[in-house]
Amino acid sequence: MPSQVVASRIRGFISLNAHPAGCAANVDAEIAVALAGAPQAGLSDALVIGASTGYGLSSLVSAVFGYGARATAVCLERPPQGDKTASAGWYNLAAVQQRAQAAGREVAVVNGDAFSREVKQQTLAHLKSIGARLDLVVYSLAAPKRTDPATGTTYSSVLKPIGAPFHSKSVSLGNDQVTSVEIAPASEADVEATRKVMGGEDFVDWMRALGEAGLLARGCRAIAYSYVGPALTFPIYRSGTIGKAKEDLEAKTRELSDWMAERVGGSAYVGVMKGLVTQASAAIPVVPLYISLLYKVMKEAGTHEGTAQQITRLFRDHLAPGVRPTVDELGRIRLDDRELAPSIQAQVSARWDQVTTENLADLSDYASFRGDFRRLFGFEVPGVDYAAPVETDVPLKLV
Question: Which is catalytic among the residues 67, 155, 225, 237?
Fold first, then answer.
């Protein structure tokens, strides 16, 4: 179709479109980070479930370009249609696939609901057809709903405190105002529904299906991503419905690791990551304000990492072939160590008490939060000419 000028259509924490050239530029920047200091060899086959944005995308890029993996990516993304752009994830994976092909590497893409039996079977069939033996499996899903394949029941996750209402500061992405929020407590049904969506069931289902199909290499490592966060966000996050789901993920991953050790001499981990700007985090009350303050403090301290830098550190220090992961007392790999450093959290807490709409720009890096959020969809990326028409019907080769 003819090229068109793509202007951003972002409303609060929702983007209605994406810019293909901006998304491709983001991918190029991630590839550059992944290549720096990496051996560009060491992994044979990798599977990334939830590979099109955020930590999943960075993991895919690191596995392929940093460690030479032949990779399969599972996603649920919207293709372009008429004058409507594709989703950012579609453009991200199209760019990864194009760059991989140019480098003589392979990235296959399965587009569909990763919770479904059909997509699992489609993925397994593809992996069998190419003779894959997976050295690495990354589970990075952040979907709001899941249909349990065993019962057909659809569950929706909720972000709520448990036991009592939650009152706190937040910042509105719609008008940039520091406001107060109140969130009613969850019911028992809310807690269970969130566990079904964001807990460990699906991760275990994937790994057992891969293992029973003979697709896991000897010594295979699997990792699912999680977040703990500071005391400031505990009532709405770690002590709330999502936190209960993450506790389930951690418990089931420890059991899964034992199963993998017995079956293929492998292991499974939960990676606890740093707070970053993602499509999911932008929708959580309190979190945008916290991350804006965190960014300011960590940049001043010289310890800030973006998504690509954090995943590069994860691979280098914990997941690279021959490297033994360092874990905490619960068996988790902690990449949030710099975020939760006492000196960092003390400064964030002090600024939290002081921050208002009037001093938001001085005390926080809210401008970067907004900019990073827009860049998730390919907008405000340095070096991209947004006045120039661009082809939006970008092909993505699917399995």
Answer: 237
